[in-house]
Amino acid sequence: MADMLYVMKDCQTVIVAAEGEAFTRDGKFVNHPYTPVPRMDFVTNQIILRKNHNNCHNTGCNMFVSTLHIYRYDELKPAGVRFVYTGNNSTFSQDLEPEYIAVDKDTNKAYVVLQENNAIAEVDLTTQTITNIRGLGYKQWGGLDASDRDGGIRITFWPIRAWYQPDSAKFHQWQGRKLLFTANEGDSKEYRSLGFTEEVKGQDIPTSALGPEIHEMVKSALRDESLLGRLEFSANDGKDKTGTYRALYTHGARSFSIWDLTSANDDVSSALPQLFDSGSEFEEMTALHCPHAFNTNSDDPDSRSDNKGSEPESLTLAEINNRLYIFIGNERPGTIHVYSLGRDVSRPRFETVFCGGIPDNSKTTQQNFEDGELYGIDPEDLKFYSADESPTGKPVLMVAGAISGTVTLLEVKVTDDGSDDSPSTLMVRL
């Protein structure tokens, strides 16, 4: 079950994130295999992919598969690595699910996102070995809109935690530092026929299960649907051996982050060093510039606030005018947030939020779609093309909208001189 492919520039090698999700059949649990990170080396120019991967050698490819069974969970847990489903004799290795791949071409190293597990696996492509698994720690929330029943946009401070759980990631070297950029969507596991879900509404957490570490304000808010009662929490994380919650965790950080690979050490018990997280800026900037698209699911703004918010999903990078631009696509509303980096790698500058594909009118989503006014909804992938690469001769961002069923070209207009002054970025549909 391939979730993502990364094609190397030699056009002969493809790295595959084979997620290997477990599933149920006839009410019985079918365990996932030890999660692989295959690398396929194509040795002929014509490759015919077949349904039976065992025939791969007949099509001219050699496959290397490295599995993630060599690490003990107890060593990784302090860094925020998660072991989600422990039933049916599942092992930690079987619980790991590769989601996305970023590659450092200089060192021939891949960074594989393990989304549900809140971790990054480091793979040496030369020796074909997994060299490390690094947890991402947790986010201490500042502000977020935690309810779809609070009458609109209500970004409030809550002393709760979140797992980052990125979907996409990109590697880039900037200002002499090796950086990993992540779009922190969030995800959880669920096996309905087995009665397993790792999410629980705040109002369904018994007060008796909350330890003294949980703030009294939070305990009270969990009983109110307009506050924390509707918010989805992890049903398992934050508990001690008696089943008492010592901390409350949500899935997904509703943000993008920059991680410092240059200063990372080999201590698997410590989280990957973080240089920056956008905090609550995605919600704040959307509320300011695109309130009609705030945490929306089709026609209903605020409807995703109790789940994972905007669900930052896709990400791409571009060097323009001596700055590094970061484009982050948000799944649910279809907005794109843009930041840029100058000399200080820990202080990105907010540039703009694009919501042109989500019309602010009285039509329904279906009507806008039929009229050709809806595009870029659920931006599953983003790709930047410089003026030299672009068919228009101008810098463009290509957006694959999974829900809208569209591929859109957005012209990227930058009037910045490369300094750290005020933002000056604009995107328009071609």
TrEMBL record:
Residues 301-311 have a biased composition (Basic and acidic residues). SUPFAM superfamilies: 3-carboxy-cis,cis-mucoante lactonizing enzyme. InterPro entries: Choice_anch_I, Mesenchyme-surface_protein. Residues 292-314 are annotated as: Disordered. Residues 73-412 form the Choice-of-anchor I domain. It comes from the Eukaryota. This is Mesenchyme-specific cell surface glycoprotein. It comes from Elysia marginata. The lineage of its organism: Eukaryota, Metazoa, Spiralia, Lophotrochozoa, Mollusca.
